[in-house]
Every structure is written in structure tokens, then in C-alpha cells.
Amino acid sequence: MVLARAAAAALFLCALCALACAEIRASAVCSAVSQAYREMGFSSWTGPENETAGDYLQVCVQNWTCCSAEMEENFIERSKHEFEKFVDEATEDLRNTFESRYKRFDDFFLELLEKTERSLNEMFVRTYGDLYTQNADVFQRLFSELKHYYTGGNVNLDEMISEFWTRLMERMFQLLNSQYDINDDYMECVNKHMDDLKPFGDVPKKVTSQVSRAFVVARTFVQGLGFGQGVATNASKVNMSAECVSNVTEMLYCPYCQGVTATKPCKHYCLQVLQLCLRRQLRMDGDWTRYVDAMLLLIERLEGPFNIESVMEPIDVKISDAIMTMQEKTMELSYEVFRGCGQPKLLEKSRVSRDVADTFDAGFTTEPAGTNLQKLVADVKGKLSLFKSFWSSLPEFVCQDENVAAREDETNCLDGEELHWNISEVYDEEFIDFPAMVSALKRAYTGYQSLDDDSSDEMSGSGSGSGCMESCFSPPPPFIIEKPNTEGSSTSCLHPCNVLLLLLLVLSILTSLNQQR
User: What is its main location (predicted)?
Assistant: First the structure.
């Protein structure tokens, strides 16, 4: 009888011990969560001391939890901040690349224009002296209009450059026939004959075509870089939906509430969450690819026949050649004009045109075009190719970071419910007109300036890229703490129970032996 009572007492003590051990384990889990919570930078612990039912939570809902409603709200806010930081850092290289290349090309084209005008002015002053300075406004107007067009002005390049040649011809005709009284009415008649006489030979036609197309390509390409910069800036600002916030919080921080502090989310789980939150960016991936293809194709023009550096640097020589051509044809031109318009009256104090012609006999040459533009083009071409698939590769790039998610072949990871969404249903908060930009790039490739021009050329995609460059994304690691080592306390806690069980076994054996007697 005594032995039976002892056995019952031992069983009761063992049950109490097991209950105490469970409470100690629960307290140890919440203690670990408390430590992790403070290490995240939160000053005070507001969670329960022991695990409790989590039915009061909105996102991190589980059967039991170590988190309070205040802790959950802090986790939600931190999830928003962390995800926005992920995307901002992931797109930083993209934004910086477009911003810096836009500035480099814009500065280069403007400096090239200023350098060309300065070079022409210095050489023409040295070569033609007062004859040039007295008529320098013709050339100044040309460069002013070219700059106005490049910086976004509404200028018809072909008409503007044709007007330059007309004004230059008028000044030249008056200088070469300075002994005559040539008024505006007579000059109007002269203009009607000059189209057939071609006083400058084929130079105006060639120069007009080359300059016009070169400036169309240069301006459109820089506008394209500015467009890409705007897209990168716009898309890097993530406005997280409530669904996105909940899923990011569940993936990064809700496991802490159950004491899971070391296990990372599975990679496919991470990909699903990022694809959900980056639906707007993923939706524009096709448009972005077509835009990059059009930019890469336009680069072929910058490298080839529409190279603005090769066109503009020798422009002074080409204009001088045109002047020499007209000077050589002075007698022929005057004869045909006088025959068609009549011979103008001689001035009382005439100046022999031969003196003027002698001045025009002095020619000059310039250094051949450099390769500065080629270096810029080679650099941006490589960058554009790398960024071609940037948006579609962004989720994969984030989740392959070992601090964000587990390796693909790792099985000990946290999994989540399968997510479903329709990318086409995403609402674009700010409309980005990709088709208009791509259309402008295509037209610039063919050399056309405005949408009124007709082009039958079809654009085909070119270039390749792996999307995001290596090191373009360095996301900060999620707040992971080591799982507390409770093996020692657990073992020491179970020792009394083991002793009592052993004592119970001994008492049972003794009772059985006593009954057999």
C-alpha cells in the first residue's frame, strides 16, 4: 500500500515537472524573441513573457505567439522600410548609369557645338578678315539655330540649313559683284536662278543631309537617355499595396513571433513575394526591352554615318570649300543671272570684285575628327546591353542573396502559401509612354525628324543582356539571430523526471515481488 502511494506521488511530481519544463521552454522562446526584438533597435519589449494565443494579431496570426499587437505593427513598418530599401539599392546602379551617361552625352554635344563654332570663327577671321566679321551674323545664326534645336526647340532642320545657304549665297553674290547696286527685288530674282545654277556645287545638299540627320540622332539619343533615367527613378519608388506589405512581413518577421530566428524563407517563396510586390515593374519589362533595343539600334547611327562628331568638326572646311566653289564660278554665275534678271546698275564708286575674290583664295584645313564620341558610345552600349532585362531579373537577383533567402537546393527553409495574381490587372500610377519614345527612336534611326515624315523602314530588335549587373544589388540582411541554445536547460530540467520515473519503476518491481510472496 505504501509503495502504491509512493508511485502515485512520483507520477504526480513527474507531471508537475513536465508542466514546469514546458513553461520554462515557452519562456525561453519568448526571451529569445525579446532579445532579437531589442537587437533590431526597439527600445522596449511589449510582448508576453510566455507564449500566448495570437488571435489578436492582424498579419502574424498563429495558434501561439510571443508578439504583441504593438510588436506586429513595428514589424509591418520595418517591412515597408526594408522592402523600399531593397528596391532603392537594387535600382541605384541603373539610375546612376542613366543619369551620368545623359550628362556626359549632353555635355559632349553642347561642347562639340561650341567648339565647332569657335573653331570656324577663329579660322574664318584669320583667313577672310573683315569680310567674315562683317558677315559673321550668317554663321552665328546657323549655330544658334542648331543649338536651339538640340536643346528641344521646334526647328525644321532642313529648312533652317537651306536658309543658311541662301543667306550665304546672297552675301557672296553681293561681295563678288560689289560694283553693282543690288537691291532686295533684284536679289529675289537672283534666288530664283540659283537653284538651277548651284553656286556651291553639291556641298549644300550633302552638308544639309549630314548635319540634319546627325542632329536628329544626337538629340533623340540624349532624350532617350533622359527617358530611361525618368523610368528608373519612377520605378524605383515602390508604393506597396496592403497585400504586398502583409506578405513581406509574413516572410521576414512573422517567424520571429514563433521563435523561428535562424531559418530563412525558401527561394521560391521569396520569388513569389517579390513578384507580387513588383508587379508594376514586371509589367513594363516588355516595353523596357523594346526601348533598350531601339536605343541600341540608334547607337549604330552614332557609330556610323550619322556620327555628329565626324559631321561637325570639319564643317568649317566644307563651308570654305563651298565658298571657293562659288568664287571659281563667279563669271558663269554673274552671266546667267544678268541674262535672266538684267544687269544691275553700276555704283558710282565701285570696288573691283577681283580684290574680294583674291581674299577668298586663301583656304585652310582642320584636324581630322577625333574618337571621343566613339569612347562614349562604346561605354553606354555595354551598359544598355546589361540593363536590357533588368526588371524581369530583379526578383531573382534579390532572392539569390543568401541573407535574404535560402539556397535553391536547401530544404530546411520556411515556405509560404502559393500566391496568385494577374500582372495585367496592375494599375500604373504614373503613365509612362514607352510607345512614343520607341517610335521617336525608330524615326531617328531612319534620319527623320518629325512624325509628319514617312518611313517604311522596320525596326528589328538587337543587342542582348543579362539584366541586372553583378553587384548592382546589395540588400541589407534581414534581422536574423541565432536560435538560443536551450539544450542545457532542457536536459537539466528533465533529470528530476527521469529520477522519479526510475524510482517509480523500482517501487513497482518491489511491489510486484512483495505480492508474489
Answer: membrane
User: 389-392 contacts: CB < 8 A, separation 24 or more?
Assistant: 389/285, 389/289, 389/465, 389/466, 389/467, 389/468, 390/94, 390/288, 390/467, 390/468, 391/235, 391/278, 391/281, 391/282, 391/284, 391/285, 391/288, 391/467, 392/282, 392/285, 392/467
Closest to 383 (Cα-Cα) out of 85, 104, 88, 87: 104
**411 touches 269 (CB < 8 A):** no
The pLDDT of residue 27 is: 55
Q: What is the pLDDT of residues 90-101, one digit of tens each?
A: 899 999 999 999
Helix axes 157-176, 203-235, angle to 10 degrees: 150
Please, which residues bridge with residue 52 across strands?
A: 65
Q: Give the ranges where 347-454 is alpha helix by DSSP (H).
A: 353-360, 372-386, 390-399, 434-446
Per-state percent for the chain, helix, strand, coil, to nearest 5: 65, 0, 30
How far is it, in rounded angstroms, from Cα 29 to Cα 258?
8
Residue 125 CA to its chain's centroid (Å):
45
pLDDT tens-place string over residues 25-72: 445 678 788 888 877 878 777 667 777 877 788 888 777 888 888 888
Q: Which of 259, 218, 262, 320 is nearest to 477 (CA)?
A: 262
What are the φ/ψ torsions at residue 265 (nearest 5 degrees)? -70, 145
Residue 180: strand pairing partners: 346
DSSP letters of 128-170? HTHHHHTTHHHHHHHHHHHHHHHTT----HHHHHHHHHHHHHH
CA 298-299-300 angle, to 5 degrees, is: 85
Tell me how far apart the alpha carbons of residues 473 and 468 are, in angstroms, rounded to a whole number. Answer: 8
Q: How far apart are CA 325 and CA 319, in angstroms?
A: 10
Residue 311 to residue 161: CA distance in whole angstroms: 14
Q: Which of 487, 504, 507 is nearest to 496 (CA)?
A: 504
Q: How far apart are CA 63 and CA 117, in angstroms?
A: 78
As a dihedral over the C-alpha atoms of residue 28, residue 403, residue 275, residue 412, rounded to 10 degrees, the angle is -60
